Amino acid sequence: MTAAGLLSSTAERFTRSAEATDSPISPNAGFAAWFAARSAAHSYTVERVPLTELPGWGFEPGTGDLRHTSGRFFGFTGVRVRTDRGDWEQPIIDQPEIGILGLVTRDFGGVPHFLVQAKMEPGNTNLVQLSTTVQATRGNYLRAHQGLPTPHLEHFLPPRPGRVLVDRIQAEHSQWFLGTHNRNMVVETDRSVPIGPDHRWLTLGQLWGLLGHDNLLNSETRTVLSCVPVAAPPANTGDPYRDALRRSLAGPGVDDDLLTWFNDGKGAMEPVARTCGLAEVGGWRLADGGIEHESGRHFRVVGVRVEAPTREVTRWSQPLIEPATPGLYGLLVQRFDGVLRILMHARADAGSSRFTEFGPTVQCCDLGDRPVPFRAEVVAEPGPGVVRHDSLQSEKGGRFLNAVNRYRVVELPADRPVPVPDGYRWLSLRQALDLMAQPDQVNIQARTLLTALLSTW
Amino acid sequence: MTAAGLLSSTAERFTRSAEATDSPISPNAGFAAWFAARSAAHSYTVERVPLTELPGWGFEPGTGDLRHTSGRFFGFTGVRVRTDRGDWEQPIIDQPEIGILGLVTRDFGGVPHFLVQAKMEPGNTNLVQLSTTVQATRGNYLRAHQGLPTPHLEHFLPPRPGRVLVDRIQAEHSQWFLGTHNRNMVVETDRSVPIGPDHRWLTLGQLWGLLGHDNLLNSETRTVLSCVPVAAPPANTGDPYRDALRRSLAGPGVDDDLLTWFNDGKGAMEPVARTCGLAEVGGWRLADGGIEHESGRHFRVVGVRVEAPTREVTRWSQPLIEPATPGLYGLLVQRFDGVLRILMHARADAGSSRFTEFGPTVQCCDLGDRPVPFRAEVVAEPGPGVVRHDSLQSEKGGRFLNAVNRYRVVELPADRPVPVPDGYRWLSLRQALDLMAQPDQVNIQARTLLTALLSTW
Asked: Which residue windows are transmembrane per the record (chains A, B) (predicted)?
């Protein structure tokens, strides 16, 4: 079979899975009780510790970078950022590697199911969320932490027994990570997979449904889901919004004009960031055991000591980023001539490795940002717009503490021209998803929102 | 027209241009005299100056980085590199931007021609080579150097009058550049283009022919040419080698298996490089006015003062990299079951931004490298192999001094199995060219060699 043929058959099978909104092997009716039981089964404590007393971590002489004494895991360094939205300096996570975020998939009753697990991460607001089958930093899979081996990792490393259906390298949150990437993988197996009580097989339709719940699918699960291809179903639902969405999924695809517009923006940008020692970052200080901005805004870097008997490593200490305020991530969409269009923003962030990436229409960490980002007020207070998706989602609980952001898709009134500033562009859903087939074109916030949009088909 | 349709029609038109090995408007018969005249017309002097006395440049306090006093243009910083071939430290060019390398194309007699120019660069061994229509750093096109405007730049910046046929972001030499990229562009115009005596319209077939000459097409021209798509002509030449090459151009394309193999290699790598101050780079020293390795090997960073009355800026000083020895870049190819296959090496270099890129079979800067790279001896002394391409080419004369490397394509005896080490893989020409449609997948040395291979069709 050709690559294109394989892709299309994979997309068709995943479409079947997306259309299955319930499953006989993991009925929706049993989900809440299962998840509550698993949440209760994990005992853990997360205790704040001043960074200066964080076991195993220290500030490097000279640079002042915060690093583990082993030199492994991750660290914090500094970055000086120049963008069209202003210049600033900030601490940033330094973890230059490609981790693995993987879902195992298997057919049950002819419908692909995905293996997720209830997993605790120290920074999650509710600690336990649904994670991918495997979530492994390079340190994890090389066993840098000397803990138990990561279960199911063999599906994702060569020589793997199954068939790789999705394998895309995508960036982490570029506002806070300096070029860190993950492989977003889906690997199919036709063998029985040994699972424990924390695991559950869910269809794509069930997972899309859970994306509407607050703080349930962790950011690793969301980014892998965003890479799962589906085929456009017929635009015959009778609902003008859904039909317009399905037409937008069918096309048009990425064309030269779009790529050149995107490249023009990249070429015109100042170089985004230069690294510097953490000690040299202007405007930030060590106070109350954490690193904070003099204004008290943006975020703090804090330390925690964790005990988690159910994790591969049962006890550890680490720094986390604690945002000062919730963020607002919004996608404006509009039916135009019967096809849904999506307003995306080509933007650079502190850790962007490609100068600019497509982000959602609105991406702000702090509604006090000045100037207020274009149309942030429409996302915050939709007014005449129709809210098509609205949820609170947590960012990577292994690196962020209580980082809960609002994700919202708002549909503007149909067929009215909307003037947009430089750097913004209307895309079809097909174009947005095609761009996501390549690394560093669509940021992680937009990927979650595009999945949320897709789930309303 | 769809994007795929446009691409295919563009490829078909460029195929016509590739088949035109001579042109009535720029006959081959007149080329040598024209080029000699243009070389003689450019007067210039390039004089060595110790880095410590280089006007406008200085070593930054603290880091020791070499920078222009304006903070613009480019600089040298340090990098600590870890690869599967060993660990080392080295100076590296720090120029985090996306420049423009552009060819204007226009039909003459129904055949697309490309506008090249005889251009002087201070580091070229013969000073004048054939360059792209436009070669502009971000500083150039924002007029950082306050010189004359770059002629023809308007074709490549919005709002551009013509049609963009090629627009690909590709990396510079990642052995010596830290993440620097260029947009490789071809823009079509149907209007008359004012040109001077240094300009010449050439077909793709003529340019491919000139690639067989030593030190004639500069590295900017070579990388843009490598991005020009062509369609596979029929495999009916009667020559088994050429027919096998044409079949290899027709397919197979990139499949999931290839991408996953490539990603496996990226994921397994150590993070390639960490920057450090130039003053901290171990094993290098300032001596005789340049920066050199203690062993005298690898390369030196030297200063030059340039006078070039025919350039946009007529007088300037700058540092250049001067390699200690010529490099050897070799591609091994083999007919297997009637289809040509190409042995590529997934490798990381000091400035690689994506952990690994595909390079040629052999890429060594110094035949004294230990261990000798796989099959370097076969490229150096082909023995039973057939040499399909052999030329000396200069690297970017705006950054390198006398950097002349041997580029060689060697065909191994057909249909004999060749065991290859980890990290090496046989690709079809179609696969190699498909990978090149994305940034950071195929390095600049391999891009030149693949174009050289293609030119033998």
From this structure: none
